[in-house]
Amino acid sequence: MTTALTGSEPTTPTSAPRLFRRGTAVLRVGSLSLRVDARTLIVTAVLTLTALALAWWGLNSGTSQMTTADTVDALLGRADEGTARVILDWRLPRVVFTLLGGAALALAGAVFQSSTRNPLGSPDIIGFSTGAYTGALIVALAGFTGLLATPLGAIAGGLGTGAAVYLLARRGGLNGGGLSGMRIIVVGIGVSILLGSVNTYLITTMDLEAAMSVATWGAGSVNEISWSHVWPLAVALGVLGPLMLAHGREMTLMEMGDDSAHGLGIRLERVRLIMFAAGIILVSAVTAAAGPIAFVALVAPQLALRLTRSGTVSLIPAAAMGAALLTGADLLARWEAIPADLPVGVVTLCLGGAYLVWLLTTMGRRTS
């Protein structure tokens, strides 16, 4: 956690800490010390509470009329069988998945935006989500239907896409050196377009019923989420989340540029590969369960960055923002005023598309 909370502007050793915008407070317990940026801590706490409040709202929302007391009784094991099934088997897995999935996508987005030093450096823009979708489709066409088949296929597709983008973006290929953030983005967009056409072809080779099911899943849907989808994502996030946080400080230093980071002793290639692989696996785990959910990875780190005003992309605030965004988007997708139960990916696509237009317009004004 220390890593995620050190994104504030540096202060001189003699200056008193200012708690909100620029300063950091140093907490000491015995021989241990922890630098805490108060604004980042407050923003993270508010975002976490917001995500949990939205999750509670989601537990109490649905076609089956349930009261808050019914939900509490179900969570405490005191409800009747029908109520327990609705709350514990239908609603709770969906809510937990949106919390974990939003956090996972945001962590991946933060890693790639930090590594490319570009707000457009997102797994769905670069093509890793599309590659995971390709891997899942190939597994489905091959007839593998086991519990781990789709997640493993999605992870293999995401990692394969990541390796292709990484190698193509390097100057001189496998034996070359240097890795430009903009080059990663441009190569990734090209690979994403190519894989998108491959995915369309794969869907056309399926029978009509399977194609319709895959198309719905490809829009990013959490309507059929169960505990069997939640546990693999929880394990992936539980293992890779701490690993990413452990390298968070190195990631922050790398934002200053490769030469500066190298001068500070950062092993650039090693850190990049670890963070890239961790981010791709998290995106693939979400994609395997719910299909490609667009723009959460793009939007969440940038919104968290603007709220914390830290100057660098921080992992924990981004994860909290991602959890709140995806949970809120799912609630909007289930809104009774909407005639159909929309896939959550449609909602994130609409909201994220508007954000992307604004981002490109803002970047264009800065460069003009």
Automatic annotation (TrEMBL):
Gene3D superfamilies assigned: ABC transporter involved in vitamin B12 uptake, BtuC (1.10.3470.10)
Subcellular location: Cell membrane
UniProt keyword terms in alphabetical order: Cell membrane, Membrane, Transmembrane, Transmembrane helix, Transport
Record-stated family: Belongs to the binding-protein-dependent transport system permease family. FecCD subfamily.
Name listed for the protein in its UniProt record: Iron chelate uptake ABC transporter family permease subunit
Claim: Secreted is one of the keywords in the record: no
One Pfam family from the record: FecCD
Species per Swiss-Prot/TrEMBL record: Nesterenkonia aerolata
Its membrane topology: Multi-pass membrane protein
Ranges annotated as spanning the membrane: 41-59, 95-113, 125-144, 150-169, 181-203, 229-246, 273-300, 312-333, 340-360
